[in-house]
Amino acid sequence: MGECYDVAVLGAGIQGSSTAWYLSKHCGKKVVLLEQFALGHIRGSSHGPSRIIRYMYPQQYYVSMMLTAYPLWHQLEKDSATKLMHTTGGITVYKEDSESLKHMQSSFSNFNLPYSILTAEEVNKRYPGLKYPPGWTGIYDPESGTLDADACRKAFQTECAKHGTSVRQNSKVSSIRPGAETISIVLSDGEIIRCKRLVITAGSWAKDMLAEIGVHLPLQASRVNVCYWRAPHPGLYSRQNKFPVYIHDNGQTHFYALPIHEYPDCFKLCAHHGLPIDSSDRRDVQYGSEDFRKIGMDDVIDFMTQFVPYVERKPAVVESCIYTSTPDNHPIIDRHPVWKNIVYACGFSGHGFKLAPVVGQMLSQLVLDQAPTHDLRPFRASRFSTAKI
């Protein structure tokens, strides 16, 4: 009947690749990692040159997870002999009476992490590319920075292969046949992959894939514009001049920016929301189109005019990314209610990349029935009344 893997992982984005790495390197398991497209494709959420890494979260369970994630990222750097992280510091700016600001301070204090509070005047003085009126407050995290996203994904895939993982691209799953002892994964070409345990990390395809095995989740895919804006005075936003990763939270909408790195003299600044789409919709969106405007470009330009005034108002480069979000914008990490040898993670809502190594650890522990390092209760599907599990 052919070989049977200890664990199969469906989806070779950042979460699936990190899980395969953890299972093979740290748990010594025989793993197959299946990707329906070519490795590094741009149809999902794991491609591109950069992501933010930070401790800065109002929710203490995320800070706890990042305390595990940072050493694992360093381990991946060492094993792969690849520089993946760049420490820039990071600032999140809130309305001075924001409850999230208070929770953020509590998170830092409870974990004895260094931080500092900046008034609007101090934010403007330290970062002259920003312009904040009174009434705003910044919280600074010296350990924040950026991740080289494509390099991170490649490093996980290369390292898990070194530890015996079979990494297979262009392997689209047609169906999953659960079983208590053996799970059969049928590929579109008719090949059958057998495994004892299964991890599903399929991004925006997870909703349909999980529905086919009886798990119905409230997931919504969105197309997000990733825009780079030309800066006539690029030094204002450069790593060399210590511009940090930057998040603006007005209580309703989030915007984020990274120091100039990917494109010469171009500043990455984006809205943390997009246009809801069907999960199978992967059309490109043209600059100036109605769909383009719907993805929040007017919001971004209005925001820049008020708070980031020293960049041009037409993006020099526009890329796209797919968010898969839950109603509360926190991921789902859980086990199949009937088939206990199937676990899944999805709905990372645009902020999961930095968490990938610890999510890989959590999924490995869950699928292998090991004691969890982190509390999974905040991520259970049962928190949604619309979930049918």
Descriptive account of the structure:
The protein is an alpha+beta fold and 389 residues long. Helices cover 26% and strands 28% of the residues. The chain contains eight helices and 20 strands. Strands 5, 6, 7, 13, 14, 15, 16, 17 and 18 form a nine-stranded mixed beta sheet that branches. Strands 1, 2, 9, 10, 11, 12, 19 and 20 form an eight-stranded mixed beta sheet that branches. Helix 1 runs parallel beside helix 5, helix 1 crosses helix 8 and helix 2 crosses helix 8.
Ordered list of secondary-structure elements with their pairings:
Layout: E1 4-10, H1 14-26, E2 31-34, E3 50-53, H2 60-80, E4 85-87, E5 90-95, H3 99-110, E6 116-119, H4 120-126, E7 136-141, E8 145-148, H5 149-162, E9 166-168, E10 173-177, E11 183-187, E12 192-200, H6 206-211, E13 220-230, E14 245-249, E15 254-258, E16 266-271, E17 275-277, H7 290-307, E18 315-325, E19 332-335, E20 342-346, H8 356-367
Give the overall form.
elongated
Q: What portion of residues belong to β-strands?
A: 25-35%
Class of secondary structure makeup: alpha+beta
- End-to-end distance, in Å? 32 Å
Number of helices: 8
Q: Can you give the helix content as a percent range?
A: 25-40%
The average pLDDT score comes to 94
Order of helices and strands: EHEEHEEHEHEEHEEEEHEEEEEHEEEH
Number of strands: 20
Oligomer: single chain
Measured on Cα atoms, how large is the radius of gyration? 21 Å
Low-pLDDT residue spans: 283-288
Main sheet, how many strands, which sense, barrel? 9 strands, mixed
